[in-house]
Every structure is written in C-alpha cells, then in structure tokens.
Amino acid sequence: MSDKTTPPVSNPRQALKERARSLMDQLVQTYPGVFFPYNERRVKPLKLGIHKDLAPVIKEWGYEVIVLKYALGGYTRQLRYQMALLKSSHRIDLQAEPAGEITEAHRQTAQEKVVFIKERRKQTRSVQETKASKPHLKTPKPTKTVSAKSIAELQKRLSKKAAS
Fold it and tell me: How much is the pLDDT for 8?
C-alpha cells in the first residue's frame, strides 16, 4: 500500500532541494543573527564545522543530515557569502559570537570563487543577450491550402468507391 498523504516524488534531487530550502527558512527564523534570507545581501562567515553543532537540532526538527549539508552548501557557495569571507575578520557560531579567524588560505579560495562566479554570470548574461538580439532565424513553413476544386474531386472519388 502506498501512503496517500505524501505525493510521489518524481525527482529526488528536486525533493532534496525543496527540503533544504525549507530547512534554511527554519534556520533563518531560529538563528536570525547567523543565517540571513537569500534576498538580503548581508551575511557572515560561519564557524568551520557548524554542521556538527546543527545536526542534533535539525534531527529534532525532522530533517536528515544530508538536507543540512545541501542547505549549507547552497548558502556558502553564494557570491554574497564568498564576499563576506573576504571582508570579515572572523567567523561566527550559532550564538553569533566570534568563532575563529579567517585564514589567508580561505580568503584566497574565496577570492578565486568570487572571480569564478562573476565570470560565469558575465558569460550567462552575454549568452542571454546574444539570444535576445538575434532575430528568429527559422521562417515558418507556409501552410498548404487545398483548393475547393481538389476537395470536390476527392469527394467524387470517395463517393464512387463507396458506391461500388
């Protein structure tokens, strides 16, 4: 028997993405000084290993650890997060307290990611602009028109076949 309350998942990756988004919304509400909504530019670098601190909390909420890793991955791969790594002097824990310096190696990695993200965005924009500026190259095929004479001849042939 199948569970009728849960709709069938046609795409497990999409389901994981939706659960991660839901978890991130709950993290933003529960830890407003640590996590920020996607539409806000401000963000602070998180403590290394913060997922270990969050694991027992999210399990109480009914989420799996894989959902947390997916949510944190999406949060930390954003340009705004990488910029925060470049500008901030320290990371924060779940109480929004300083929890470690940002090393030069981490800053270097963040700088590389910033360059990569900006370059990818630039390429995406140029492809979109190119597509928008090109006129539609395919010309529609002309529709065949059937003359009244052809229809009359076809009807005549069909009537003869039906009579025989």
Answer: 56
